[in-house]
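Continuing from the previous page...

OK, I double-checked the sequence for Mg-protoporphyrin IX chelatase against my notes and this is the correct one:
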Amino acid sequence: MSKKLYPFSAIIGQESMKKGLILNIINPKISGILVFGEKGTAKSTTVRAIPNLLPEIDVVKGCRFNCNPHDKSTMCSDCLEKVNKGEKIEIVKQKMKVVDLPVSATEDRVVGSLDIEEAIKSGTKKFEPGVLAQANRGILYVDEINLLDDHIVDLLLDSAAMGVNTVEREGISFSHPANFILVGTMNPEEGELRPQLLDRFGFSVDIKGIKDPQKRVQIVKYRSEFEENQDEFISRWEEEEQELRDKIENARKIINEVEISDEMLFLNAQLSIALEIDGHRGDLTLMKATKSMAAFNNRKLVQKEDIEEVARMVLLHRMRSLPFESAKKLDQETIKKIINAPIEMEI
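Thanks. Re-ran it with the corrected sequence; updated structure tokens here:
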């Protein structure tokens, strides 16, 4: 019996986190989201609600890596061998998975392990899959990611960027697909991530507990109603959930048709320069994020409001001061002021 999930549409507040997750679903190349915030702010509930907004995916039956039966370019070696031999592969449907990575995880637990003795003895690569294998084509959720060893975080970010996990031991290597959306959470007061690691996340959002008494009361009421009768509560929110599903599905269909003009690219660059953002990763992520935002709003051309919607998520953690200090400086008024300033374009 599968566990009932709290409806995404019934979550009150935390709009920036919800928006960031949705845009990553529309375009996983945004490269994940890092959530700064205190405990008890619906971070985990929000992440786990995402699969209900998506159609089930086709998976090769029995595959340890949840391979896509329709895409040879992302198949593991076992599935690819079967396809190349003309063998019939069975297809099953399943929900996108949300896989948890504990902060105590070792490198072998994350990337998987090779049986060196077996490889030397028989020449067979015997691989024990790790968390990255489970997370392929899903979401990898790391609570308190700042408490993970930097080396482990590096491995996660490398795999997320390349879509492949490669394990090398004693001159023997094994690779498998590892396409996942990385969602990390952290409390900045309990430790930081190195700037080089922060920059690798597509988005960051800072969330706080809700201070509005009416909203807090509504949260308690909704949660109580869900716990008393889950089926009835889920049914009550089904119309809103379906509307959101339709918007996301449409956005995923048209995302590759969305265009961004030179004027909008200049606005992106203007923001990065004004905020003293190092490197070009921020500019590239802004382009991907604005296209996703336009697609979500059923448009095929990026507009200025798309930049306003996503700029804070893209640039907050790339500013030179610490993210929770940057938050005080990077508000929507600052963003609007920068992108509305006159610019001279020279191409």
